[in-house]
Amino acid sequence: MTAPLDTTTLLPETGADTGPETHPADAARPALADETAPAELPPRKRRPKRDIDGWVLLDKPVGMTSTQAVGAVKWLFSAKKAGHAGTLDPLASGCLPIALGEATKTVPFVMEGRKVYRFTVRWGVETDTDDSEGKAVAQSEVRPAREAILAILDAFRGEIEQVPPAYSALKINGERAYDLARDGVQVELAARTVVIHSLDLVEMPDADHAVFETECGKGTYVRSLARDMGRRLGTHGHISALRRTRVGTFPEEELVPLATLRAWSEERDDAAPMHVLRPVSIGLDTLPCLRVSPADATRLAHGQPIILRGRDAPILEGPVAITAGGRLIALGEAEAGEIYPKRIFHAGK
Questions:
Q1: What pLDDT, on the 0 to 100 scale, is given for residue 21?
Q2: Which letter does DSSP use for residue 63 in this model?
Q3: pLDDT at residue 190, rounded to an integer
Q4: pLDDT at residue 12, rounded to an integer
Q5: How far apart are alpha carbons 245 and 116 in whole angstroms?
Q6: Which residues are catalytic?
Q7: What pLDDT was estimated at residue 227?
Q8: What are phi and psi of 67, to 5 degrees?
Q9: Residue 26 pLDDT
Q10: Residue 119: exposed, middle, or buried by beta-carbon count in 10 A (0-12, 13-18, 19+)?
Q11: Residue 143 contacts by C-beta under 8 Å, 6 or more apart in sequence?
């Protein structure tokens, strides 16, 4: 959250831009045997559920679905409630923020943050899933030179039109596109406008592969980006490796591998590794923060709006995080000098 505003002392506004929306990375693809590999699932041991509130910044391993990762973390912490902020394919590794308890109320705001990916494109082969887990549907002997790759990158920066992969979670007449594709139905998805904030060639380890880094907006499919770059270069391409290095304000260097969480839990005789739990409020770092009096906090907690009074009252519009006594108490919507409560935080994290 940004520096708080105080309705009791009428501090000036310190709101921050929440930034463009970003897409949860490439969720849907054909089911694989290793998605349910017993080695990747938490042990079948009963634990009493607890009220655990906060964020776990997980470094998801390759070969595990996002749902399995959430289940593993939820089990390790014996949490009653858990969710994640942006799906990662089993093929992908990296930043998977997992919300526990009250933190699940802030997931939509984390989803609004920009996401950064590093990915490898395999030239010469296009697959039905646009990644290495699909079947080859087109091949080419052409391998693009560095100069040719650099020459097309501007065409994929900024606002672009992009057709999502057939194997995606988008719905067609109420059914998921990947379900239709698996059943052999020809899937045709309309192009959508997405935003690519940056796209850079990082390295070319050999003629068949190129490594890129991109910061992209909501709705962007990295798999489609690889496919379309291949076609633009007069060849074909698909994702052979994908890692998400950042989600919003959650950087790669703060991620904790699942294996490390499990090891800490085992060392402490099944005690949850609470020292890695981040506060609920970090999911709201991009929102303006408003500090209110105890009386206003009580009104908001009962679902009643408050009025920002006084000549120097802050001018706020849109979502705002609200604190009282140093505790996060609510998410609200500011409109015409009033704050309307939307979500109440009972844990005060």
A1: 32
A2: T
A3: 83
A4: 27
A5: 6
A6: 89
A7: 96
A8: -65, -40
A9: 39
A10: buried
A11: 123, 124, 207, 208, 235
Task: Give buried/exposed letters for 204-223 (b at 16+ CB in 10 A, else e).
Answer: beeeebbbbebbbbbbbbbb
Q: Which CATH superfamily includes the segment(s) 21-280? A: Pseudouridine synthase (3.30.2350.10)
Which homologous superfamily does the CATH classification assign to the domain defined by 4-16+287-344? PUA domain (2.30.130.10)
**In terms of Cα–Cα distance, which of 298, 293, 291, 299 is closest to 322?**
291
In whole angstroms, what is the distance from residue 183 CA to residue 224 CA?
21
What was the pLDDT predicted at 168?
74
Residue limits of CATH 3.30.2350.10 in the chain = 21-280
Tokens representing 245 are 């290095």
Rounded CA separation 330/106 (Å): 10
Whole-number pLDDT of residue 313: 66
Measure the CA–CA gap between 16 and 28, rounded to whole angstroms.
33
pLDDT for 83: 93
For residue 17, what are the CA distances in angstroms to 6, 77, 284, 287? 19, 33, 12, 7
Helices (H), strands (E): how many in the chain?
Answer: 7, 20
How is residue 74 annotated by DSSP? H
CA angle (200, 192, 112) in 5-degree steps: 70
**pLDDT < 70 positions in the chain:** 1-47, 268-272, 310-313, 347-349
Backbone angles phi, psi at 220, to 5 degrees: -80, 135
> How would DSSP label each residue in 24-45?
PP-------GGGG-GGGSPPS-
Alpha-carbon span 183 to 191, nearest angstrom: 22
Tokens 């009972």 belong to which residue?
A: 346
pLDDT at residue 43 in the model: 54
Say if residues 80 and 205 touch (Cβ distance below 8 Å): no
> Regarding beta strands 237-247 and 115-123, do their DSSP bridges make them parallel or antiparallel, or are they unpaired?
antiparallel
